[in-house]
């Protein structure tokens, strides 16, 4: 939650920059920082998911189902898997 609150603060700052008509490259730099922070949160969420939900599903014998779900989940984590959600 702390990371998300920090990101929200960053995003509020970006919105102020836009309102103040600040120099576009400066705004873009801040947007990029927000995107990087969101990707970091996604990596943490993915790691937590694998360490908890995926592990439990495998222990319960739902390996095929959880692998399909995990592959779908990875589509939403381009910072972890690549720009198109491709693994590798």
Write structural notes for this entry.
With 88 residues, the protein is mainly α. It has one domain: Up-down Bundle (Methane Monooxygenase Hydroxylase, Chain G, domain 1). It has 4 helices and no strands. Helix 1 runs antiparallel to helix 2. The chain is elongated and about 55 Å long. The two termini are 29 Å apart. The mean pLDDT is 88.
Brief synopsis:
This protein has 88 residues and is mainly α. The protein has helices at residues 2-19, 24-59, 63-74, 78-81.
User: How would you characterize the largest beta sheet?
Assistant: none
Low-confidence stretches: none
Radius of gyration: 17 Å
Order of helices and strands: HHHH
Please estimate the helix content: over 70%
Question: Which terms summarize this structure?
Answer:
Methane Monooxygenase Hydroxylase, Chain G, domain 1, 4 helices, 88 residues, 80% helix, mainly alpha, single chain
């Amino acid at each position: 939650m702390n990371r998300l609150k920090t990101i929200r603060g960053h995003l509020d700052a970006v919105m102020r920059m836009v309102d103040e008509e600040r120099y576009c490259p400066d705004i873009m730099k801040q947007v990029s920082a927000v995107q990087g922070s969101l990707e970091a949160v996604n990596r943490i969420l993915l790691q937590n998911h694998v360490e908890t939900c995926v592990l439990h599903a495998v222990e319960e014998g739902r390996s095929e189902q959880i692998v399909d779900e995990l592959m779908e989940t990875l589509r939403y984590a381009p910072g972890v898997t690549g720009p198109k959600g491709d693994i590798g």
